Queue: 2 jobs
Job 1
Amino acid sequence: DAKTTQPPSMDCAEGRAANLPCNHSTISGNEYVYWYRQIHSQGPQYIIHGLKNNETNEMASLIITEDRKSSTLILPHATLRDTAVYYCIVRGISSGSARQLTFGSGTQLTVLP
Amino acid sequence: SQTIHQWPATLVQPVGSPLSLECTVEGTSNPNLYWYRQAAGRGLQLLFYSVGIGQISSEVPQNLSASRPQDRQFILSSKKLLLSDSGFYLCAWYHPDRAGHEQYFGPGTRLTVT
């Protein structure tokens, strides 16, 4: 699975959009980009994933660059409850693998009142 | 909708004592199941995964074991706990028929070995 690079921490004002970047320059054509978050003392929560096209769901939007070497997770109106560590993960979908998720260090997002 | 449960939520056990953590999934059948461990301030480490009843694969040699006695039940066990077994244990599932293969995690069990 491709390696990802994220800033260790970011702050965002409550009510503003939070834009979390992720670099994955070695991503291959069949690898997806997944975003999870982990609020303190809770299990990781799936947010969104994408392959090539931008994606949006009730939680967030995922913008993937045309060359797929980077992506941005957008929380359109951040709230205090969005304070968490956000993980960007790149992995392929292949048969016969454990399909485990490899979590890096992530980005600690702090939403400020 | 699908839900995943873990218990207990917290556990304090002495060194050398046995361990049994349970994970159950509702609302789906034939899920792939995973046990992860997260040490304080660290990332997730995959311990075991299972693609079906009685099928267990171990990723890391250790004094832990896993079993899957029923389709939606996954158990993590140890005969004798070590101090290094302390951590946050997470169970996860995904269904191979889901196009995105995204995994969903339970609330976790925080284990402290004293």
Note: Chain A has no helices and nine strands.
Job 2
Amino acid sequence: AQTVTQSQPEMSVQEAETVTLSCTYDTSESNYYLFWYKQPPSRQMILVIRQEAYKQQNATENRFSVNFQKAAKSFSLKISDSQLGDTAMYFCAFSGGYQKVTFGIGTKLQVIP
Amino acid sequence: GAVVSQHPSRVICKSGTSVKIECRSLDFQATTMFWYRQFPKQSLMLMATSNEGSKATYEQGVEKDKFLINHASLTLSTLTVTSAHPEDSSFYICSAQGLAGRNTDTQYFGPGTRLTVL
């Protein structure tokens, strides 16, 4: 069974600064997908970024980038130039070959003006 | 693209009644839809996986007779909470996964439904 671990329950960052959220996972599968989802106070789950395990290149989406270390089973999210709208719960998620997604417990990020 | 809607956003019902929640993929066809439950300050708990035209697969501990799921078309799945009780009060979220292109390996989420059972 897959597990996803987010070891930072809460984090804060000053507006315009950079913050990194950690995520590790455990799996025996060789091909899989990793995601970061954001859940703001509205509770709408929003896909932030997606990484395919067979791709060595780290995914980037504007101010969001990941550091994917496959051997270490690590998948951290870096948010650059943090904005107030980035305040949210961030969930790391894993999907193997069977459609189900396993979520971490989340990291609550507060962006401070 | 990849927009999922959910209706209603909020519902309050009396104990013993049934409530239906709809989940629609608006701009793509979803072969698979998922239903989650989220308790306050917790992560999402998968309740069931629904494939179009077939019976849903329920996770262990989820009562299939209480949480009826129908996925009759490639754009619509429904969750019916039957004989609701206060302990069923929760935030229910659906997600959809598509047929082709980059949507096939990614779940896109609806905005959720807050159910309160009095």
Note: The mean pLDDT of chain B is 91.
